[in-house]
Design a protein that fits this description.
57% helix, mainly alpha, Homeodomain-like_sf, elongated, 6 helices, disordered N terminus, three-stranded mixed β-sheet, 152 residues
């Protein structure tokens, strides 16, 4: 029986192995899927291995040197493709929802919050602190302040 709060995608034995590896080591695996349950997870592990200078060998295919293809680049490009496909599917779904009138985006911040933010900034408070105090994202605050400047 599995522990209740354990991530089903967690690979504790792999994590212990990865912590023991050091620059110049070789990690030999039978299948790329042994590194993670998704392309993104595999890409993260392989990017970390590459950054640490650890050679990854998949089915005796060496990734560094020689005529063998670079497995790191292959995995990174597959992860990017996966991300692009997800983004495309999301955009299609949003477009369909908008067409049906079900998706209208986020509601705008009330003018009172922006006025309060301007007062706090005028008093000398840093924008990061203002955003935290008003419980909004810093980038959201900057977006609304820029929009207000354009109106003025």
């Amino acid at each position: 029986m599995r522990e209740p709060n354990v991530d089903p995608g967690a690979k504790p034995k792999l994590n212990r192995l990865l912590k023991r590896l050091k620059r110049g080591d070789r990690l030999i695996i039978h299948d790329v899927s042994r590194l993670g349950r998704s392309i993104r997870a595999v890409a993260a592990v392989t990017a970390d291995l590459e950054r640490q200078g650890i050679m990854l060998i998949v089915d005796n295919l060496e990734s560094v040197g020689g005529p063998a293809p670079n497995i790191y680049a292959l995995i990174a490009s597959a992860a990017q493709m996966d991300k692009d496909l997800l983004t495309d599917r999301q955009a299609i779904g949003i477009a369909k929802a908008r067409a049906k009138g079900k998706y209208k985006g986020r509601k705008a911040l009330p003018a009172t919050i922006i006025n309060k933010a301007n007062k706090l900034i005028a008093k000398g408070m840093k924008k990061k602190e203002v955003a935290q105090q008003l419980n909004i994202g810093e980038s959201t605050l900057y977006k609304y302040l820029a929009a207000q400047r354009q109106k003025d």
